[in-house]
Amino acid sequence: MSTRETFRPLTDYEGLYEVSDQGRVKRLARTETYMSGGKEVQRKVKEMFLKPKRDKDGYHRLVVGGRKKRRHYRVARLVALHFLWNPENKPEVNHLNGDKTNDCVDNLVWATRSEQVQHAFDTGLKTPARGSQHGMAILTERKVCRILALLSRGYPRKRIRERFGITDRTVRAIARNEQWKHVPDLWGGRRSA
Q1: What integer pLDDT is reported at residue 193 of this predicted model?
Q2: Could you give the CA distance from residue 150 to residue 162 in angstroms, rounded to a whole number?
């Protein structure tokens, strides 16, 4: 079943550009008049679909306008502004299926920043930072392996705490496999205290 593509005039560029509910932007056919060498010149501009480029974050982006009024837009934002109601005045546009290049209106929703971040975690697009990748981490995976080796050989927790600058609670959590679970116990010791 194919649905008909609906086009609406692009705000501030009425008569020049239109955006569709399928995520496409087209330049409309027209005759432009401009001055060249002191003479008024006319040229015909053909209708054509603009080709978006992917930005550094993977979103479709394009440039709209002429010489004097050029602006860069994310295609998803243009579609949302022209086809989605935003009664709560949410500032960002979220891609429901996580595909940043699918700019169809059915795949877009207005969201807050926190809703977007939560959606990314819920759909697996983002995973929580673990181990040394976490901003608050004091240890590295290598140090945790050393701690596990020392624990498996009966090394006193107090000396481990002092050596690595951590609390007894952290040592206990590593031993019980409550923290740093992704680090394998390479020495075959028990990870329970």
Answers
A1: 42
A2: 13
pLDDT tens digits, residue range 128-146?
767 776 666 788 888 888 8
Share of the chain above pLDDT 90, in %: 50
Task: Compute the distance between CA of residue 86 and CA of residue 191 in angstroms, rounded to an integer.
Answer: 51
Q: pLDDT of 139-187, one tens digit each? A: 888 888 889 889 888 899 999 989 999 999 999 988 888 888 878 765 5
- Residue pair 143/181 in contact by the 8 Å Cβ criterion: no
Return the half-sphere exposure (C-beta side, CA atoms, 13 A cut-off) of residue 3: 9
Contact 74, 59 (CB under 8 A): yes
Q: Residue 41: which residues within 8 A CB-CB, separation 6 or more?
A: 33, 34, 35
Give the SS3 label for residue 5. coil
Name residues whose C-beta falls within 8 Å of residue 164's C-beta, 6 or more positions apart in sequence.
138, 139, 143, 147
Q: Which tokens belong to 129?
A: 């930072």
58 CB-near residues (< 8 Å, 6+ apart)? 100, 101
Q: What is this structure's pTM?
A: 0.67
| 98, two tokens | 């996580």
Closest CA to 58 of 81, 74, 77: 74
